[in-house]
Fold this sequence. Notes:
The complex is a heterodimer.
Chain A: H1 3-13, H2 33-40, H3 48-58, H4 69-73, H5 76-79, E1 89-90, E2 97-98, H6 100-110, H7 122-133, H8 149-160, H9 170-174, E3 181-182, E4 185-186, E5 197-199, E6 204-206, H10 208-218, H11 229-241, E7 251-253
Chain B: H1 7-13, H2 37-45, H3 76-79, H4 82-91, H5 125-136
Amino acid sequence: xxxxxxxxxxxxxxxxxxxxxxxxxxxxxxxxxxxxxxxxxxxxxxxxxxxxxxxxxxxxxxxxxxxxxxxxxxxxxxxxxxxxxxxxxxxxxxxxxxxxxxxxxxxxxxxxxxxxxxxxxxxxxxxxxxxxxxxxxxxxxxxxxxxxxxxxxxxxxxxxxxxxxxxxxxxxxxxxxxxxxxxxxxxxxxxxxxxxxxxxxxxxxxxxxxxxxxxxxxxxxxxxxxxxxxxxxxxxxxxxxxxxxxxxxxxxxx
Amino acid sequence: xxxxxxxxxxxxxxxxxxxxxxxxxxxxxxxxxxxxxxxxxxxxxxxxxxxxxxxxxxxxxxxxxxxxxxxxxxxxxxxxxxxxxxxxxxxxxxxxxxxxxxxxxxxxxxxxxxxxxxxxxxxxxxxxxxxxxxxxxxxxxx
Lengths: 254, 142
């Protein structure tokens, strides 16, 4: 039995990750040594270009009438440290699930007198990458609670539902066949700890929701909108599965 | 025919050609169509069509990055009859409920299908027969 088959056999016998305390290995560990080294080197990681731009946006008011992030939150290294590890979350009293991008846009509209950034815009990717970067190496800390249980359940159901013309669920690959090759790519546990990611196929930075849409395209399934309830629920489920996994934003993937 | 399931009703409802399952095989060609192994080979390799190598390895083909989710296709023409190959392409879930092999000639009991694919099979009947014809030629010695 080779290592991959052994890995597969072990994984197949484990209980559902959502209910176990096991910390799953990051998708980064499935990359070549070269790409792993590049991702870990801030001077060589192309995603850091967006992080640098995010820092500029953090400190800049968009107009004379609007305020910068820094004008309320000050030094992001201090105020944003660990923040990304708690998203997505339900704002108390709102019954609305927000991811980091949603939080940033809510802030812009409600506090900064600015318009929401478009999904997948360089601005939103840059700022969310910059904020997430302040939690580098910190473990994700999202668990199921009274406020998010309903969203989690919906995300969990979606993860296990077969979909698309090719009739595959997320779990079919990302639980049952981790470590096996889909063409040149090794199937990972589908953890959200390195987003936004720089994907070689994209030649750019992209969000988790963009990645989810790419998976949907692959199985010829309906793609949901960026920031949609369906993807937020799935993001919550994926993040709970990844509880304890260290933040690696911006990750690199093929 | 023995062990014939009631696929005809499903098939005609969706505008598909009817077929009979006998044991773990569909012995008769869909619509009596004749498969062309050359075209079948193209479908197997085409990433926008069959895209079989995303999951299956085919050592005789000079392509990097072949998948390993399904069994290697070398020798499949010796291991399986044409009818067995045909059913595995049409809808493998008829013989294995937990299979991840996509149903290439089925349109019902699917969920959240992308709008452009609703009501369409992943492969057309002629393409199924072409792929069956090609796979049937694969022996274990390339």
